Amino acid sequence: MIEIELLPAQYGDCIWLRYGETAESLRHVLIDTGFVPTATAIRKRLAEDRTIVFELMVMTHIDADHIEGSAHLFQDAKVVTPARFKEIWFNGWRHLVTAKTAKDTLGSKQGEYLSALIGERGIPWNERFGGAPVYVPPKGKLPRCELDGGLKLTLLSPTLEKLKKLHGYWVKNLAGKLKPGDERAAMKLLAKDKKYAADALGTSTNVAKLAQAKFKEDAAEANGSSIAFLAEYDDKTMLFTGDAHPSVMTSSLARLEPKKKVPIDLFKVSHHGSKNNTSPALLEYIDPVEVVFSTNGKKFNHPDPECVARIIAAKKGRPVTLHFNYATKQTTPWVKNATKTGPNKYEAVAGRDGALTIRL
Ligand SMILES: [Zn+2]
Q1: How far is CA 230 from its chain centroid?
Q2: Mean pLDDT of 330-346
């Protein structure tokens, strides 16, 4: 059995994946930690249930809405132990330096904080990659591994190129308006930029019209550095994306053997449903059935209606269910206006205050 739980993570991500033969023998994977309150909830659950062991923890990238809670969680030496966190995948500053072969030692506050804490807690770091950055090499087979209990992972993002860009982005920002490690100021600046673009088409749910909007890919370096992967268990395939760029995922998917449109039982939409992270090209490579959006819509007004419409339109009337972990002014119209017939039919459900569990 497979359970995918979205934790209330405000406008960020925190996904708790469970897999196993029976409800009593479930294994765990954690993808991102959202902000501090989300991490507090995880700490509490780990303290209450000593049997929970994470086979893997993936911190997709350094943006606060994915990583902030980790610095809080990892300070708890009682629950964060090598016995309970078997491995973490995270591309920290040291990996960017490796990617760029530079000698700088600057980094975002949370990124450096987490890096220090991983060491202090003694958690194996990028171990399956020999301690090197987690990335997709330009040629050959995609990196694949199998976790204990049989969950198979195939890495789709980031590329080394995207990690190099993140390095450049970091340095550039340190020299410009932002002070080293001033994540809050960075978020403020980003929020300002995004707001200008967000509301162009309002909260319309006109799929045919919205799906025609021209696609423009996200250019944010941190998002592009996201770890994205396929996870397979029991004939089910899940796609976890962080805030990855669709062109990177598309070119990785094109390298899969055999070459075909991949049936995806569960698709965690990249970047909280931004219209710049789910391209028509990506939707030509995947055929998702359960589609998950993690966001409360604050700050960036996610999900963008163009993104939701593009996903529905690509299905051409085959069954698809949209899962929103929060009922918001952006998501409620999609739930209300779900149509059961025609080429743009879909079903939609909203979680309760950010909490949502899907069983495959
Ligand atoms: Zn994000």
Answers
A1: 12
A2: 94
Query: For residue 289, what is the enclosing H or E element?
Result: strand 286-293
Distance 25 CA to ligand 1 centre (A): 31
CA of residue 21 to ligand 1 center, whole Å: 32
Contact, 291 vs 334, CB < 8 A? no
Which stretches of 71-180 are assigned E, i.e. beta strand?
88-89, 144-146, 152-157
Count of beta carbons in the 10 Å neighbourhood of residue 337: 13
Pairing status of strand 347-350 against strand 321-324: parallel
For ligand 1, the distance from its centroid to the CA atom of residue 194, given in whole angstroms, is 13
Q: Residue 343 Cα, ligand 1 centroid: separation in angstroms?
A: 31
What spacing in Å lies between the alpha carbon of 35 and ligand 1's midpoint? 11
Helices 109-121 and 93-100 cross at an angle (nearest 10°) of: 110
Predicted confidence (pLDDT) per residue in 5-31, tens digit: 999 999 999 999 999 999 889 999 999
User: Does residue 151 register a pLDDT over 50?
Assistant: yes
pTM score, two decimals? 0.84
The separation between the first and the last C-alpha atoms of the chain, rounded to the nearest angstrom, is 7
How many angstroms does the Cα of residue 13 sit away from the middle of ligand 1?
6
Residues in a beta bridge with 57: 30, 88
Instruction: Kindly report, residue by residue over 72-99, the tens digit of the pLDDT.
Output: 898 888 999 999 999 999 997 777 766 6
Kindly report each contact of residues 185-194 with a partner whose C-beta sits within 8 Å and lies 24 or more positions away, as own/partner.
Answer: 186/108, 187/64, 190/220, 191/299, 191/300, 194/299, 194/300, 194/301
Q: How far apart are alpha carbons 300 and 259 in whole angstroms?
A: 36
Model confidence band, residue 193 (pLDDT cutoffs 50, 70, 90): very low
Distance 320 CA to ligand 1 centre (A): 23
For residue 246, the CA-to-ligand 1 centroid distance in Å is 14
User: Cα of 272 to ligand 1 centre, how many Å?
Assistant: 6
